[in-house]
Sequence to fold (157 residues):
Amino acid sequence: MSKKKVLILDCGCQNFDQGGKLNHYYSDLAMKELEKMGHEVQISLIGGSWEIAAEVEKIQWADVIIVQTPGWWMSTPWQFKKYQDEVFVQPGIVGTDGRHHGDPSVGYGTGGILTDKKYMLSSTWNAPKLPLTRKMISSAVLGSTAFSYRFIKRSNS
Fold:
């Protein structure tokens, strides 16, 4: 296996007295295991302070992006949505939304320029196992996050 550059987006954010400890733990564990395997790893703390330009550079640097997030109210924390809203619109992340000038109904979601990236979503839940099926979490809850990553890497060329 070739050495990869991995960016972990640690979305463990302050919530009551927990402070994202479980997601921080999983992010640190992933970093240690990946580094043991010879990969380069960087972590961005989404609940902390971060600079837009630095995050753009990290995303461009990475071969693989891992999102480690808690499930809050059937979604990711608002801090992660803010990160996506501010970072993903920057030059070098997405070119256009992909629509064709001749027919704007064609090509939406294919304006990505980061076609060489892989991504993985990992989430923690403070909920009983039975109500949360894999299909529900992957489509209804984390579907918009997955779509965002498909958007920035899908090209119409």
